[in-house]
Design brief:
Layout: H1 3-14, E1 18-26, E2 30-37, E3 42-50, E4 53-62, E5 68-73, E6 87-90, E7 96-98, H2 104-115
Antiparallel strand pairs: 1-2, 2-3, 3-4, 4-5, 5-6, 6-7
Length: 116
């Protein structure tokens, strides 16, 4: 997926939940954005695509003061987790947990329920 197509898709799908989107990197395969949510938090998003397949991702949800709430990624360095390579960092980098949230849709659904 081309980065500009992905940016437009994110804007279309989640635009009503966002204050703004700040693009950091858009190239043929990599999308890096900051999504500023209406609740004052922000989501740091990095996705690497190969065609229409998401290969690598990281989604880091931060408070308005840029403190970690939850960070999801699929870096292949926590082999002891049941959901390897998918994992999340909750509250701090060292608090690793298994993760079934492996796409932006999953992450945004969790963020929505956390705000309720």
């Amino acid at each position: 997926m081309r980065a500009t197509e992905r940016l437009l898709e994110i804007e279309r799908q989640f635009g009503n939940e966002l204050d703004r989107i700040v693009p950091l990197e858009l190239d043929d395969q990599t999308v890096r954005l900051i999504l500023y949510l209406k609740d004052g938090t922000n989501l740091r998003l990095t996705e690497q695509w190969e065609g229409n397949m998401l290969q690598r991702y990281s989604y880091y949800w931060l408070t308005a003061a840029n403190e970690l709430k939850i960070g999801w990624d699929n870096a292949s360095h926590h082999t002891h987790l049941d959901t390897f390579p998918h994992h999340k960092h909750v509250g701090r980098q060292g608090n690793l947990q298994p993760s079934t949230e492996t796409h932006l849709d999953d992450v945004m659904a969790l963020i929505r329920t956390a705000g309720d």
